[in-house]
Amino acid sequence: MSELTGTIFDIKRFAVHDGPGIRTTVFFKGCPLRCLWCHNPESMKIQKQIVFFENKCIGCGECFKRCPSGALEATPEGRVYYRAKCKLCGTCVEYCYAEATVMEGKTVTVQEVIDEVKKDMPFYENSGGGVTLSGGEPTFQPDFCLAVLKASKEEGMHTTLDTSGCVKWDTLEKILEYVDLVLYDMKHMNPDKHKEFTGVPNELILSNLKKMDQLSIPIEIRMPTIPELNDSQENLQALAEFLSELKNVKRIKLLPYHRLGEGKYERLDMDYRLKDLQPPSKERMKEITDFMRDRISERIEVISG
Ligand code: SF4
Ligand code: SF4
After folding, report:
1. Which sequence spans correspond to the domains of the chain?
2. Which amino acid residue places its CA nearest to atom 6 of ligand 2?
């Protein structure tokens, strides 16, 4: 087994929303997109990051006493963290018994991922589940992503890739050889709006989806539904027309915007730019779902949730 390493930020067992059956989802760190609504901001940078949970801190002072880089300071206003000075040595995490200081991201080998994922093999067999690679963007670490998928297939597991499709086609094509199901994220059909809301245009993403559709891998589209940003009739109509032309798209899942990741932004010293945006109501989601159903090919199931 390859000793290749990659950076992940979580492995979630018993996942039931990341593909069929009971699954283990491996969350890769690093993503080329910067979606305004991202609820996993810890996934954006591939580098590890220190986060601080103020509510867990017992004030023992071990973290700033032990920091060798002067990146932590005790002030009358509380603990101050100088991210630019931090060398990510992990000493503060090691000595924080309250688990208030945490390292987001860890380096793992392919074998370590497979060992963890294999623990639930009996559940996969009984439920039709398997392993899902998500993120972040798994293809942002292409060699590691490929090696984990290949090793998963060698173990006889069903594999799902959750991707934004923002990767060179040659790279994606090689990875897809070991993928049984693709969860493909769509954010906006208009290239300028796509760039405004995610930081990248959508031409490559749309072109990769068309090429992927030529292979015989089933595809499920996932669209985060963000009020005022991508839920206009014009955008939904364009999406329905585009997807209706594809033959391997089996389903579109509309994911209502939520703010559950907002607190993470503060802990990572990042701005949450959708502070005033409220999630869509159930009625609004039903309206959008019905609108899509009326316009998309009958071959494609439309669900929300
Ligand atoms: S990771 Fe190391 S350098 Fe960074 S704050 Fe903690 S102890 Fe200091
Ligand atoms: S080591 Fe942990 S609990 Fe102690 S002061 Fe630092 S963050 Fe708080």
Report:
1. 5-46+106-304, 49-103
2. 63
The pLDDT of residue 1: 58
Q: In degrees, to the nearest 5, what angle opens at C-alpha 7 toward C-alphas 5 and 13?
A: 105
Mean pLDDT across the chain: 96
CA of 63 relative to ligand 2 center, distance in Å: 5
| CATH class of the domain defined by 5-46+106-304 | alpha beta
pLDDT digits (tens, 9 = 90+) for 184-231: 999 999 999 999 999 999 999 999 999 999 999 999 999 999 999 999
Euclidean distance between CA atoms 255 and 302, whole angstroms: 11
Whether 80 lines ligand 2, by a CB cut-off of 6 Å, is no
pLDDT band at 135 (very low <50, low <70, confident <90, very high): very high
Q: Do domains 5-46+106-304 and 49-103 have the same CATH topology?
A: no
Distance 88 CA to ligand 1 centre (A): 5
Global pTM value: 0.94
> 3: exposed, middle or buried (C-beta count within 10 Å: 0-12, 13-18, 19+)?
exposed
What's the mean pLDDT in 154-163? Answer: 98
- Is 49-103 CATH 3.40.630.30? no
